[in-house]
Amino acid sequence: MKYLLDTCTLIWVIENSPSLSDKAKEIILSDESEVYFSPVSAWEIGIKISLNKLSMTGGLAEAHRTLIENGFLFLPVKWEHTQLLETLPWHHKDPFDRFLVSTAIIENMTLITSDSIIQKYDVPVLW
What we know:
By secondary structure, this protein is of the alpha/beta class. The protein is 44% helix and 12% strand.
């Protein structure tokens, strides 16, 4: 099964945070799971680091290395991901989260997130 990490989940994975749910850990660590991350999350993390709202040892370069070394898959942005945003309901106001929802819908992925607002969309969510 294919999964997409939202930005908070991605940060928690990189930092090996106890905030990550047991179910999310189980799925992420399963050999049967294809776990993807989006450049949109990297963009959001980069902005938060530059605004001093997030501290991450080694920054984005180290985060990317860690993800790739641990078998996570990079999912490039596609035109279809952006096009769906035109009609996506405005349950969530955060543009990064809206994009991740759109991506998960287009790619038929389950979004791994603790964000309860995302559950209002027609997208499979796991936490």
